[in-house]
Structure to design on (362 residues):
């Protein structure tokens, strides 16, 4: 066993691997901050799926972001092999002294083995309980408590073998002065200073609430003289969904539709300045939590202990209080069942009204 207590402050080049989605990537920022705190002179890189690096585009602690192009698998076996080899050679030149693998994919394990760092640490996943997975690491951290803990804590647990004296748990959503300028221009052009931000869509159908319910919620809020900003991604399905929401709204002049018009860092500024955030289990919800914007969030069959808003003011409304839900590990992500439709509109209105009475001018 490597004497990690002795070596923990000697890492000059660190690679953190997280091959998941936007929200998952955002939730590794406490880990990155903790590493920077204990190794201020180290150069810290991350390896992510291409596209997800956008969530960390303004995160200053990072030295470099490496990405895996998932589209290569559609370009043929030759292109895929050449792409993987080129990435491996680039990573090899970095001479990493520490690699932390937060992922369960085999390719990430092989990087830990064949990049030959001084120390590699991964998770001992049940589905990877075999000699080959174990041989790729110097140390494996148990995951038996992961279903009972928040994802932030689970990510940080990979540092346990290093016995660090202080752990940072704050999620960081970063933005720059250019993002502030862009958002202030939008707010000025639309005469917005006090607004509620709604981010209604999620990448999976089963995580969304029916459009008509959001329309009724917005109608209630605009009748109370509230201004509404709606945000979302550039995908056509998301834009069409929001158009359906707006179509049934009675006071469209009090709604600003910014779907597809913002980067993540620009969205962060807009969320931080909102009086209240309303949304579902998505990366925007985790951004709102990181930015401490009071939130009302609607959840379906996700593990609440792992994915609820972290260390932030919020009200969580769970569909499981109103209907039977499948276990998180049994959810078919292709299902057309909208589990969130079981959440009554009145419950959402009551939760939003609570935060409306609590808010202060920012």
């Amino acid at each position: 066993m490597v004497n990690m207590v002795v070596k923990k402050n000697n890492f000059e080049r660190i690679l953190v691997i997280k091959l998941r989605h936007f929200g998952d990537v955002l939730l590794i920022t406490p880990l990155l901050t903790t590493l920077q705190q204990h190794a201020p002179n180290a150069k810290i890189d991350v390896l992510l799926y291409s596209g997800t690096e956008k969530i960390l585009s303004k995160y200053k602690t990072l030295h470099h972001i490496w990405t895996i192009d998932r589209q290569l698998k559609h370009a043929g076996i030759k292109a895929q092999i050449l792409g993987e080899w080129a990435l491996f050679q680039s990573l090899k030149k970095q001479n990493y002294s520490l690699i932390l693998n937060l992922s369960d994919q085999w390719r990430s394990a092989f990087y830990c083995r064949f990049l030959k760092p001084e120390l590699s640490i991964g998770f001992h996943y049940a589905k990877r309980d075999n000699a080959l997975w174990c041989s790729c690491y110097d140390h494996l951290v148990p995951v038996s408590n992961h279903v009972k803990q928040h994802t932030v804590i689970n990510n940080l647990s990979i540092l346990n073998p290093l016995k660090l004296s202080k752990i940072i748990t704050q999620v960081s959503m970063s933005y720059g002065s250019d993002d502030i300028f862009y958002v202030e221009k939008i707010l000025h052009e639309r005469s917005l200073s006090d607004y509620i931000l709604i981010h209604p869509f999620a990448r999976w159908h089963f995580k969304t609430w029916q459009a008509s319910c959001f329309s009724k919620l917005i109608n209630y809020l605009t009748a109370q003289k509230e201004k509404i900003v709606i945000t979302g991604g550039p995908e056509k399905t998301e834009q069409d969904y929001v158009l359906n929401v707006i179509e049934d709204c009675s006071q469209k002049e009090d709604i600003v539709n910014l779907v597809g018009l913002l980067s993540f860092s620009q969205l962060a500024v807009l969320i931080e300045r909102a009086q209240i955030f309303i949304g579902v289990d998505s990366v925007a919800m985790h951004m709102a939590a990181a930015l401490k914007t009071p939130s009302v969030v609607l959840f379906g069959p996700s593990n609440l202990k792992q994915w609820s808003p972290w260390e932030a003011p919020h009200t969580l409304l769970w569909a499981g209080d109103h209907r039977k839900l499948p276990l998180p590990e049994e959810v078919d992500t292709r299902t057309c069942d909208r589990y969130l439709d079981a959440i009554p509109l009145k419950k959402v209105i009551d939760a939003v009204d609570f935060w409306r009475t609590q808010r202060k001018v920012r």
Remarks:
- Residues 233 and 260 are 5 Å apart (CA to CA).
- The two ends are 52 Å apart (CA to CA).
